[in-house]
Design brief:
eight-stranded antiparallel barrel; single chain; 8 strands; 1 helix; 152 residues; mainly beta
Length: 152
């Protein structure tokens, strides 16, 4: 594919690019740090989709830092206040004592505000686990601050 063909394809994308960061949601965890970047777009008036890449850094010996890629779909309300509930699949780069397989499921709920330019600021809670397909399966729970800006 030539660069000009890629630019034409990208010019038809409409959605938001987002960045988020955060840490484990539980006090019993070691406060691992997370960062993600992604792209979200509307499928219908209520259905959204998003693809993201992310990473976490850990400090416990039996757990490993890792990266991931995820695709999720779900509901997202419109208006100046929004709520979202998304589910999908993820692939991670390293397994450890909490995530024992490369294939994972990711579920996210979020709330936030949206301004007239479609800029969003919100809070997301996500759970990543393999749904018991292999053990151990403690999963990871994370809370993230999220900022999203329109693309195109």
């Amino acid at each position: 594919m030539s660069l000009s063909a890629l630019m034409v394809a990208l010019s038809h994308l409409t959605g938001n690019v987002y960045f988020s960061f955060g840490s484990d949601s539980g006090l019993h965890y070691n406060q691992h740090k997370y960062v993600t970047v992604g792209y979200s777009s509307a499928l219908t008036s209520l259905l959204d989709q998003q693809i993201e890449i992310g990473a976490w850094a850990v400090s416990k010996e039996q757990e490993r830092s890792a990266g991931y890629v995820a695709y999720q779909t779900g509901l997202k309300t419109k208006g100046s206040l929004y709520a979202s509930a998304l589910s999908g699949v993820a692939l991670i780069t390293n397994t450890d004592a909490r995530l024992s397989s490369v294939f994972q499921f990711k579920h996210t709920v979020g709330v936030g505000v949206r301004d007239y330019r479609n800029v969003e600021i919100g809070v997301d809670y996500s759970h990543i686990s393999n749904a018991g397909l292999s053990l151990p399966n403690a999963g990871r729970d994370l809370v993230q601050l999220r900022m999203s800006v329109p693309f195109n």
